[in-house]
Write a structure and sequence with these properties.
This protein is an alpha/beta fold. It has two domains: 59 residues, DNA polymerase, domain 1 (Orthogonal Bundle); 272 residues, Aldolase class I (TIM Barrel), CATH 3.20.20. Helix content is 32%, strand content 17%. The strands form three sheets. It has a nine-stranded mixed beta sheet with strand order 3-4-5-6-9-10-11-12-13. Strands 1-2 form a two-stranded parallel sheet. Strand 10, helix 6 and strand 11 form a beta-alpha-beta unit. The chain binds iron/sulfur cluster. Iron/sulfur cluster binds next to loops.
Length: 354
């Protein structure tokens, strides 16, 4: 039995052709899966009964199982989603008044070992398949009953941020297949302008995101190599000079003006001084960026403290005076451990870098 969710349209069509089905069947089936969210072949009423039976004999259609669901006081919803082999990830919906972003994961655990990140303490178990990446969004839609695909204006699940567990560009092939499925207008139909992929800095893959047309966020968190080497091991392989060049390349390749979001966690005594803000301004010169200043959520044994409100506002002011947008982000879902860097599906500590 083969799982259908996660096959590209061309692969799906090829599989049906092998079974002797006409090409138009692929589109019909695609719409049942991704536009209507159907998981039972027998309920696909526009398909002939013999075709339904063929499908049931060869394929499965599985959305990740929601095994736990928590809703924050601010409306943020977090799910623990389990896959067929028992591995699980956390997935979050961050609602705004008339829309909302679903934060999806690409790996079980994370191998990157960023020192401040709670997710990074979970041992890397495996990459997610394309179907498991898409499936998280589909299960989120199940949870909200948002099937069939509503119009753009009436969606609660309107945006996708690939910022959950794992480093997306380390699982890039599966991510690309998943994004193409998520963007397909006959199915889930999320516009590329409403998708943001966040990386800790896998520089050689960044320009390709421009070809996909999705937005880029970089977990920057430091204004120079010395600090970044200390808190983000990825920087030893892709130091800031290379990372910034990749960002420039991304911006050159975008078919329309596209700013990059630089994520910057405010860590007391580490990266939060006025001098650091000035270094940051120099670093991003020539790029169109927005810098999100993110409050740090301390966790047991992390060894970091959040920057003070004063330091954060001072930092924001320096960037502001240099005409760099630097909003101080409001924490969402902190009470249910759903905020940035807090996701973890295995509550035991494996120890970083194991
Ligand atoms: Fe992994 Fe991202 Fe956490 Fe770094 S910040 S350890 S890349 S999940």
């Amino acid at each position: 039995m083969q799982e259908l969710i996660g096959l590209s349209f061309d692969d799906l069509a090829a599989r049906l052709a092998e079974l002797g089905e006409k090409p138009f069947r692929a589109k019909q089936l695609w719409q049942w899966i991704y536009n209507k969210g159907a998981t039972d072949f027998a309920k696909m009423s526009s398909l002939a009964k013999p075709f339904q039976a063929t499908l049931a004999a060869h394929f499965t259609l599985t959305h990740p199982a929601i095994v736990a669901e928590q809703t924050s006081a601010d409306g943020t919803r977090k799910w623990l989603m389990r896959f067929a082999d028992g591995q699980s990830v956390e997935c979050v919906h961050i609602p705004e008044e008339d829309r909302g972003a679903v934060c999806i994961s690409t790996q079980v655990g994370c191998p990157m070992g960023c020192a401040f990140c709670h997710t990074g303490t979970q041992r890397m178990a495996r990459n997610l398949t394309a179907g498991e990446i898409v499936g998280q969004f589909m299960s989120a839609r199940d949870s909200y009953g948002e099937w069939p695909t509503p119009t753009d204006e009436t969606r609660m699940l309107s945006n996708i941020v690939v910022m959950g567990m794992g480093e997306p560009l380390q699982n890039f092939d599966n991510l690309k297949t998943a994004l193409r499925i998520l963007m397909d207008g006959d199915g889930i139909a999320i516009s590329k302008r409403k998708i943001t992929v966040s990386t800790c800095g896998i520089a050689d893959k960044i320009p390709e995101l421009a070809d996909l047309g999705v937005k880029l966020a970089v977990s920057l968190h430091a204004p120079n190599d010395e600090i970044r080497n200390r808190i983000m091991p990825v920087n030893r392989k892709y130091p800031l000079k290379i990372l910034m060049e990749a960002c420039r390349d991304y911006q050159r390749r975008c078919d329309r003006r596209q700013f990059i979001t630089m994520e910057y966690l405010m860590l007391k005594g580490i990266n939060d001084s006025v001098e650091h803000a000035r270094e940051l301004i120099n670093l991003v010169k020539g790029l169109e960026v927005k810098v999100n200043l993110i409050p740090f959520h301390a966790w047991d044994g992390c060894g970091f403290e959040p920057a003070s409100n004063n330091a954060t506002h001072r930092f924001a002011r320096v960037l502001d005076e240099a005409h760099i947008a630097a909003p101080i982000r409001r924490s969402r879902g902190q009470d249910i451990m759903a905020a940035c860097g807090q996701l973890k599906s295995d509550k035991t500590d494996a120890g970083r870098g194991e």
